[in-house]
Automatic annotation (TrEMBL):
This is Zinc-dependent alcohol dehydrogenase family protein. Belongs to the zinc-containing alcohol dehydrogenase family. It comes from the Bacteria. Residues 25-129 form the Alcohol dehydrogenase-like N-terminal domain. Residues 178-305 form the Alcohol dehydrogenase-like C-terminal domain. Its cofactor is Zn(2+). InterPro entries: ADH-like_C, ADH-like_N, ADH_Zn_CS, GroES-like_sf, NAD(P)-bd_dom_sf. The lineage of its organism: Bacteria, Bacillati, Actinomycetota, Actinomycetes, Micrococcales. Coiled coil: none annotated. Keywords: Metal-binding, Oxidoreductase, Zinc. Gene3D superfamilies: Medium-chain alcohol dehydrogenases, catalytic domain (3.90.180.10), NAD(P)-binding Rossmann-like Domain (3.40.50.720).
């Protein structure tokens, strides 16, 4: 089969590799039907994730068809159509019992495309298949479901739920990329008074409007703090969601939040950010962080099937499965290509 193989910082290739097989009795081998590229994959290619070693197949999101299962797999059969989650769960360790699957101690967590071979391939081995895949509801497309492999639950859990968004809140989302847009859509489920999207790119702010942002702020020439305070009698946002992952946007969120409010950090940070405790401590500000656990995926699948959630609109570019080099180029240059999510399909 063919797969995207990492060969060190800045180097990858679509090349022929051995097809995966069942290694443990809880494994499944899944034929990849649709797959996407994540911002985390770009971090890996920059050398920001040293645990990813040369020769690793990248990718941690896919929709596919089960080809074979181990003798210990109870809930899957060959031919089943499944969502392969970005988080793998052993299902029995302390953290899995608490639904903190991202912190799995039994060999799971974020391992696909990180510690074991991932999904940017024609086939993928999925460990702990019963607890790491989800059956796909009837009537939804591969593209729609694929958005729940990572960005859907990430924005919802780490942004909206960690941020404790409530009806009537003013929610500021800093960063209108795929995660920020997912956070906006998740926040709208809780009937906030206003959702404010803040970004530097007009194309992403237009996308934010399409998915439900009430107010958009181009931080290149507008003062986001002034806009948010104008909506809140000078107090600041009830919830500020950081969806970029650079020091400046984290510090901006801390400035935007009201006394007693919450900063929910979703972005993946590669550098330290300054925490102004000298200002924050007296304002009763809560700061949350987190790796997605995907405990919300069943809920989001129901919302998708009932058409109360439309994450499929985030897909902007489509490719055949063999066009990974071109797809990476488009995704990595989003400022020029206006890419949000790219989807590669074996059926293209």
């Amino acid at each position: 089969m063919h797969a995207v193989v990492y060969h060190g910082p800045g180097r990858k290739s679509w090349e022929e590799v051995p097809k995966p097989s069942i290694q443990d009795d809880t494994d499944a081998v899944v034929k990849v039907d649709s797959v996407t590229i994540c911002g985390t994959d770009l971090h890996i290619l920059k050398g920001d994730v040293p645990a990813v070693t040369e020769g690793r197949i990248l990718g941690h999101e896919a929709v596919g068809t089960v080809e074979s299962v181990g003798s210990g797999v109870k809930n899957l059969s060959p031919g089943d159509r499944v969502l392969v989650s970005c988080i793998t769960a052993c299902g029995s360790c302390r953290f899995c019992r608490e639904a903190r699957y991202g912190q799995c101690l039994g060999g799971g967590g974020w391992i696909l495309g990180h510690l074991v071979d991932g999904t940017q391939a024609e086939y993928v081995r999925v460990p702990f298949a019963d607890t790491s895949t989800f059956a796909i509801p009837a009537g939804v497309t591969d593209e729609e479901v694929l958005m729940l492999a990572d960005i859907g639950p990430t924005g919802y859990e780490v942004g909206v739920l960690n941020g404790h968004v409530r009806p009537g809140d003013v929610v500021a989302v800093v960063g209108a990329g795929p995660i920020g847009l997912s956070s906006i859509m998740g926040a709208k489920l809780f009937s906030p008074a206003h959702v404010v999207a803040i970004d530097l790119a007009e194309s992403r702010l237009e996308a934010a409007k399409r998915v439900g942002a009430d107010v958009v702020v181009n931080a290149t020439h507008d003062d986001a703090l002034e806009v948010v305070r104008g909506l809140t009698d000078g107090l600041g946002a009830d919830v500020a969601i950081e969806a970029v992952g650079v020091p400046g946007t984290f510090e901006q969120c801390a400035a935007l939040v009201r006394p007693g409010g919450t900063v929910a950090n979703v972005g993946v940070h590669g550098k330290p950010a300054t925490l102004h405790l000298e200002d924050l401590w007296i304002r009763d500000v809560t700061i949350t962080t987190g790796l997605v656990d995907t405990y919300s995926t069943p809920t989001l699948l129901r919302l998708l099937a009932s058409r109360q959630l439309d994450l499929g609109q985030l897909v902007t570019h489509r490719f055949g499965l063999g066009d990974f080099m071109q797809a990476y180029e488009v995704f990595a240059n989003a400022a020029d290509t206006q890419a949000l999510k790219v989807v590669l399909s074996a059926r293209s």
